[in-house]
Specification:
Largest sheet of chain A: 9 strands, mixed
Structural class of chain A: alpha/beta
CATH superfamily of the largest domain in chain A: Dihydrodipicolinate Reductase, domain 2
CATH architecture of the largest domain in chain A: 2-Layer Sandwich
Order of helices and strands of chain A: EHEHEHEHEHEHEHHHEEEEEEEEEHHE
Low-confidence stretches of chain A: none
Bound molecules: 1,4-dihydronicotinamide adenine dinucleotide
Largest interface: A-B, 45 and 45 residues
CATH topology of the largest domain in chain A: Dihydrodipicolinate Reductase, domain 2
Oligomer: homotetramer
CATH class of the largest domain in chain A: Alpha Beta
Mean pLDDT of chain A: 97
Number of strands of chain A: 17
Helix content of chain A: 25-40%
Radius of gyration of chain A: 21 Å
Strand content of chain A: 25-35%
Amino acid sequence: MRTLKFGLIGTGYMGKSHAIALHSVAAVFPLSVVVECEMLADITAQQAAVKAKEMGFSRATGKWHELVNDNEVDVVDICAPNGLHKDIALAAIKARKHVYCEKPLALNAVDSLQMALSAEEAGVKTMVGFNYIKNPATQLAKQIIDSGEIGDIVHFRGTHNEDYLADASVPMNWRLKRATAGAGALADLGSHIINVAQFLVGAISAVNGDLNTVIKERSTAGSVIDKESVENDDQAHAMLRFNSGAIGTIEASRVAWGRKMGLTYEVTGSKGSIVFDQEHLAEIQLYTSDQKTSRQGFKRILIGPEHPDYQNFCASAGHGVGYNDQKIIEVRDLIEGISRDQAIWPDFRAGYEVALIIDAIEESYRLGQWVHV
Amino acid sequence: MRTLKFGLIGTGYMGKSHAIALHSVAAVFPLSVVVECEMLADITAQQAAVKAKEMGFSRATGKWHELVNDNEVDVVDICAPNGLHKDIALAAIKARKHVYCEKPLALNAVDSLQMALSAEEAGVKTMVGFNYIKNPATQLAKQIIDSGEIGDIVHFRGTHNEDYLADASVPMNWRLKRATAGAGALADLGSHIINVAQFLVGAISAVNGDLNTVIKERSTAGSVIDKESVENDDQAHAMLRFNSGAIGTIEASRVAWGRKMGLTYEVTGSKGSIVFDQEHLAEIQLYTSDQKTSRQGFKRILIGPEHPDYQNFCASAGHGVGYNDQKIIEVRDLIEGISRDQAIWPDFRAGYEVALIIDAIEESYRLGQWVHV
Amino acid sequence: MRTLKFGLIGTGYMGKSHAIALHSVAAVFPLSVVVECEMLADITAQQAAVKAKEMGFSRATGKWHELVNDNEVDVVDICAPNGLHKDIALAAIKARKHVYCEKPLALNAVDSLQMALSAEEAGVKTMVGFNYIKNPATQLAKQIIDSGEIGDIVHFRGTHNEDYLADASVPMNWRLKRATAGAGALADLGSHIINVAQFLVGAISAVNGDLNTVIKERSTAGSVIDKESVENDDQAHAMLRFNSGAIGTIEASRVAWGRKMGLTYEVTGSKGSIVFDQEHLAEIQLYTSDQKTSRQGFKRILIGPEHPDYQNFCASAGHGVGYNDQKIIEVRDLIEGISRDQAIWPDFRAGYEVALIIDAIEESYRLGQWVHV
Amino acid sequence: MRTLKFGLIGTGYMGKSHAIALHSVAAVFPLSVVVECEMLADITAQQAAVKAKEMGFSRATGKWHELVNDNEVDVVDICAPNGLHKDIALAAIKARKHVYCEKPLALNAVDSLQMALSAEEAGVKTMVGFNYIKNPATQLAKQIIDSGEIGDIVHFRGTHNEDYLADASVPMNWRLKRATAGAGALADLGSHIINVAQFLVGAISAVNGDLNTVIKERSTAGSVIDKESVENDDQAHAMLRFNSGAIGTIEASRVAWGRKMGLTYEVTGSKGSIVFDQEHLAEIQLYTSDQKTSRQGFKRILIGPEHPDYQNFCASAGHGVGYNDQKIIEVRDLIEGISRDQAIWPDFRAGYEVALIIDAIEESYRLGQWVHV
Ligand SMILES: NC(=O)C1=CN([C@@H]2O[C@H](COP(=O)(O)OP(=O)(O)OC[C@H]3O[C@@H](n4cnc5c(N)ncnc54)[C@H](O)[C@@H]3O)[C@@H](O)[C@H]2O)C=CC1
Ligand SMILES: NC(=O)C1=CN([C@@H]2O[C@H](COP(=O)(O)OP(=O)(O)OC[C@H]3O[C@@H](n4cnc5c(N)ncnc54)[C@H](O)[C@@H]3O)[C@@H](O)[C@H]2O)C=CC1
Ligand SMILES: NC(=O)C1=CN([C@@H]2O[C@H](COP(=O)(O)OP(=O)(O)OC[C@H]3O[C@@H](n4cnc5c(N)ncnc54)[C@H](O)[C@@H]3O)[C@@H](O)[C@H]2O)C=CC1
Ligand SMILES: NC(=O)C1=CN([C@@H]2O[C@H](COP(=O)(O)OP(=O)(O)OC[C@H]3O[C@@H](n4cnc5c(N)ncnc54)[C@H](O)[C@@H]3O)[C@@H](O)[C@H]2O)C=CC1
């Protein structure tokens, strides 16, 4: 079997999760290639070396350029802050590497488009880490919608709310600055729910949004006196119009006390509805209009072997998948896409389509009116 | 004890509910007056007579004018379709009756204001039937917010979704025509959630909404061939900005398959959150930021004797209240407001404030931009 | 229309609830008689007079004997502590009154049988206040089971857990003494879930139980020094075998921290299951084995107009009923049973059947083995 | 770093799950040894070879004896049917291998004790695959109980119900025969919940149970005509008494329609309660008695980095763990126990303690009375 060698950049939250997925995927899914964890880059050579050992990578570097241009590396996996995605990805594409990049793809739509076009021109495969659409439950929702079981979609309501910055005493970090993060909750969390909306309901034609920064200043990390401005939104919501005629809303917040994984959606169709909550990630609620009135209700479907990509994790229904299992499915899609030269979704183009919506929401906020995409 | 004599107009869904509340209230709450079900008006004298017997009213009439001007009637209780509220209420006020009117107060804000001004000038008491804010659970939410326990409110998301018109084969009825109903789901259901938003978060300063009619034609009632246009929205949503600086969204739908009583809200503050779902009407979920990280979570508080207005229904917590119990509380507030000459809320002015928001949402939809209220 | 005059004994928790139901029932259900709240008895004449005014009864007495023998009283309604049920009921039956008695029927099965036999001999109607089986949701469960939709019942698990005595500092009261209460949690709460088990699954043929008193002493009410022994169980559970071949368990506790209304059951059949929780009293969860594997799940059915006895409360599904609404249905069944001379369930015989199981569980506990009923 | 080489026997449901865990564990947890998937045994050499390739094992054999006695193998991992556990484990112990064995440890307590004694004598490490107690949520429950936060435990109710054999047309398989499985649902699922009860509440002193075979015959696998007897229980429940004085019940069923992963428990203490449901495996409900009455309720705690063993999977709370993540924790405990020569739990002795309870429940069923353990 051919081998596919990964070079991972960034060893924080996502770096760890990608490493777990890369090491686990072959045990879960039959693959057509052998995956190797070849090289790891971090902010210094020393940290990279430590992490490489910890995370099971063969080699390490303090310079991502080295990794990107290393002859052994087949796939560049970007788990660095948003502001670095573009430079790393363009360099990787130039070096004819496939690129696996965390979300949001870049700081804005223009950059995202440049990345997508470069990759398409170079003929390399790309994937963006919107893992929630890889959840078997959400794949099931998609199957149900595509099958027509709930009819034509008429409404979508999605949220991705968390509370990781609700505490005003949390100091400044890269997520709060435009240069390193782009938009705030809208890009960090909103990008996921926009991607879900596009996955389940299709293209969005117009948006009209509102943004708000609740905690306007944060203490400089490490300092007790200094304060810095928060440069992007803490909470965002927008009304959406889809090409199909459906309407909807999305909402993202990083200051929503109590929400730890508040990615939820409710999709209403002309013949039924689906309700989902990522805090109970292994189930959906399904309502169909063909039920006898006296027996009608939402049905709680626990994910099982009959549903997409579950069987390989577990032979019994309802036993549950976890966060990292989504990344395993994502990595499988990437690997098989590369190995078999098949289309991958969500690729950089899909990442660009999300970025377009983010930018349009920001513009609609500035203009106070609808923006057509 | 003084007696307070009610004249009820309309004997449909709400007429029945009001009758139950009027007959039950004295057994639940200690009152300072004796309530009497004096007179009932319906569309014909015959139907009024039948219903009066059924619903325990002493006298009946086929003409609401007679009821409104009857010397014995102290309070006119309007449970007729929206389009009649204004004429009946103005006539009742002219006759110096107190007026209890179902929501929405009128077809639009202009009419609503006229009603409120007339009542204020005449010095009669008024109440609008926004019963959901009388639910002990929602009163508890209000208490918690007012106490500062969840800090300054930063976000509100409210919905009132039902599916009573999701089936496209349901024929035309008064709720679907502008002359009899005004707005669609926005007025019928949205009025409730707007009222809840104002109750919990305060005055709304600007709105920006979207409306949509999913089922554009319905068969004429009784006919197999004829079709008529639906004249108002099946689903509506809007972004809100509150005077306080909080932002939010509301949503109303009458075509949301599976939702039977989908009045929900999530109120996020700088120190905590409250989540509520009227399908589980006797509880709220409360999250406060003062919890130890390893023991943090939403707490499900079942309504009990320590909470507003529950004790009189039941001595034990968690035993539950039902829809009509809200109406009993509403009627108690009305009766005691009249008897003790105290302020009542929500009165016609509050009904007008809801109507203002409905009209502004419709205008924002036409203009495609924010409308300041 | 004929009138039916009620004499109520006891004005505590249940007295109030009965009074609400008696005053409300005619507004909810069409009745074939006029209900009158004729007389009220409490422990002193003074308290009775105060409560009669408060609760809308025409006359009052400090001696229940007077009420029981009053010529105007048609129905004696017993809301006094368990230890008084037998004497009052036998006196009432002797006076040829119909008797409505709170649960548990008496202190033991022998007394209960005597009461049932007297009533049957005298030809008076009786009812025991097991209101939970009047809940529309539980009536729906019964309908589903009777229809065969979930096949032959193979298992039943029921609980009735509360925490009203979990706090060890709550002082002694009548519920904790054999002479006034009989068994402890087993009689107070267990009687309800035994009645539910018999309602849904049929007669019980053998039991094997365990009892336990967690808090063995309580302070004498009003004293800071004196302590008294708790004379009955704080928590009880038992295995059941039904005539039908089904097996099951029940559990009752008054020290189950956090449970406010923990009456729950899960009924498993050869073709499906029903799950119920009284803290969400207006819904059941239904699973049927005929579902496509990839769409199988428990369905949450919100109670609506198509279900037993809901329509009269509300025209829309999912709007909810409360605790007192169950008592309204119970009172309707009693009134119509008397007025139309129809069988009533649960009558004193049904109360005796519950008492038999309670006694048998206590005996099985003493013997450490199965007891056949 | 030292290496630890695993030999896996059985490649069905559990074999796959163990393989995933062995391949993933080093990416999740820092380990003090290198894990190698050395050898795999299955029922034929051919199947073993195919599976070894699929599941990433270096060598394969059709004879488990070869694996057990292979010099390279350090740990024998038994994922074969229950009836084989004893022979394989004793052979492995004789060969001085550490043994990782799926639950239930053996067909009965006598065999289990022999296995535990052999291992103890030989000084090899053992572990039994009761993975549910490795769930971070259940580890948190244990922490809370041990900390005294809910006081002295007074009651435990546990279930492990599934519906994998509820369909009467599922043919005969090894789980239904005494020689290959031992007890039925009681051993297959009940063993888990007994283990949980012992983990959370401590040693059990007496049991009193009931057993029942709902579907008495099943068709011979592959045949349309032949039927065979089911030799063990489809559903079982028992009352428990713990050494501590707490009482409780457990329940196991393989015919509980609708339950896919129905491992649940409710632990009541003198100062609070914990409620858990494995279908929502990443959370517990906690109630403590120190709450203000008007703010009391069960708190839903989503598992996060502050809780046992979660941080290594994910840096954010509420993102969820899956079934296989429990196995990863289990394998980590095994590996580190071996590598650092530390005590492992649950080991074969713990497996024996579960077997004792299973046998005692069966005996209590035969005798119809309590059996002391
Ligand atoms: N798909 C998902 O659910 C999630 C995606 N993300 C995305 O993953 C990316 C990384 O986020 P986190 O892991 O949370 O951040 P983090 O702050 O935990 O980790 C960032 C890592 O990048 C490294 N890094 C920074 N500058 C670097 C440089 N010049 N060269 C090499 N390495 C460098 C840091 O040393 C650190 O290891 C972001 O784009 C974020 O939006 C983050 C969390 C969840
Ligand atoms: N607070 C709440 O939760 C609810 C409020 N409503 C409100 O209650 C009002 C009535 O609605 P429903 O009871 O659902 O309608 P409905 O259609 O069930 O009943 C309307 C009643 O008005 C009577 N009516 C019509 N024209 C009349 C006339 N000229 N004179 C006298 N009676 C006349 C009809 O005969 C009928 O008895 C509406 O304003 C509606 O928005 C309705 C349902 C719930
Ligand atoms: N169906 C249900 O869900 C419930 C049923 N119950 C049952 O209702 C009955 C009463 O219980 P609660 O109302 O909770 O008790 P409580 O202690 O609140 O009230 C008892 C009432 O009986 C009165 N009473 C006592 N001795 C009397 C006498 N000699 N003559 C006249 N009145 C006397 C007391 O003054 C008091 O008004 C009990 O049998 C209890 O088991 C209680 C609560 C719920
Ligand atoms: N911890 C847990 O949650 C679970 C534990 N188990 C336990 O795992 C064990 C295996 O169960 P499953 O994997 O469900 O069974 P299974 O029937 O799916 O797999 C059994 C495997 O053992 C192999 N096998 C049978 N005889 C063999 C022999 N003589 N030599 C070598 N291999 C042989 C079979 O070929 C098959 O690969 C059982 O003890 C069961 O109780 C099963 C499921 C869940």
